[in-house]
């Protein structure tokens, strides 16, 4: 499922299905709370109660975001007694993606934050 392949001067865009899948993946990371959950899970497994304490969000909100991440295949869940323990499904690849995003953000400077459509200026 290569979205883009080849050298920088010879990019070939892949099929529409691959682009759609990538858009769905990035949607999983698009919410600030989901991204924060992913960052916490990069540190190791967490229960919902742990995440609510770390994030200061309601349990229902954390559970809803975890369900989205689970549906996207970004996290896994296992039972531990009566609790559910969440972890990154692909920790190495997820950390590589987050590191690449940090590099890209460093290169774009304030452009993303100042974006009139999706940046801080667009928020009510």
Automatic annotation (TrEMBL):
Is this entry keyworded DNA-binding?
yes
Family annotation (InterPro entries): ArsR-like_HTH, HTH_ArsR_DNA-bd_dom, HTH_MetalResp_TranReg, WH-like_DNA-bd_sf, WH_DNA-bd_sf
Query: Which CDD domains is this protein grouped with?
Result: HTH_ARSR
SUPFAM superfamilies (UniProt xref): Winged helix' DNA-binding domain
Q: Which UniProt keywords apply?
A: DNA-binding, Transcription, Transcription regulation
The record, for PROSITE patterns, names:
HTH_ARSR_2
What Gene Ontology molecular-function terms does this entry list? DNA binding; DNA-binding transcription factor activity
Q: Which domain of life is it from?
A: Bacteria
Q: Which intervals hold domain HTH arsR-type?
A: 14-108
Name the record gives this protein: ArsR family transcriptional regulator
